[in-house]
Amino acid sequence: MKLSDFQAAVFKLSDYPDKGNNFIIPGFGLSEESGEVVGRIKKTLKNKGGKFSEDDLDNLHEELGDTLIYLSELCDEFGFKLANVAKNAIIKLEEKKKLQKR
């Protein structure tokens, strides 16, 4: 799936108060879901010695999807294209890699 198609689908399907003029809901949602991702990883490290079961991986996969939804909504709130955010992130990583080789 293209990121542009994903962003369009999220925009069509998501619903929250004052959508299009409310960065708070998706911003807090992204923070909350990111915390859930970290929490699942921490619990697996602490309670299972870092061994992820299929169920753990399924849950982690779902939480990562939730973060992607909120990230897409946040991009919409600021008029950003998710694909451009991703592209700029790759450029940033490439620049860091070049600096590390020096």
Describe it for me?
The protein is mainly α. It has one domain: Helix Hairpins (Orthogonal Bundle). 78% of the residues lie in helices and 0% in strands. The longest helix is centred in the middle third of the chain and has 25 residues, at 24-48. The relative contact order is 0.16.
Task: Give a quick rundown of the structure.
By secondary structure, this protein is mainly alpha-helical. It is built from four helices and no strands.
Give the SSE order as H and E letters: HHHH
* Second CATH tier, the architecture: Orthogonal Bundle
The average pLDDT score comes to 96
CATH level 1 name? Mainly Alpha
Number of helices: 4
- Rg, Cα atoms, Å: 16 Å
Please tally the β strands and state the result.
0
Give the amount of beta strand, in percent: under 5%
Fraction of helical residues: over 70%
Q: What is the end-to-end distance?
A: 36 Å
- Characterize the biggest β-sheet: none
Estimated structural class: mainly alpha
For the record, the count of structural domains works out to: 1
- Low-confidence runs (pLDDT<50, min 5 residues)? none
Overall spatial form? globular
CATH topology: Helix Hairpins
CATH superfamily: MazG-like
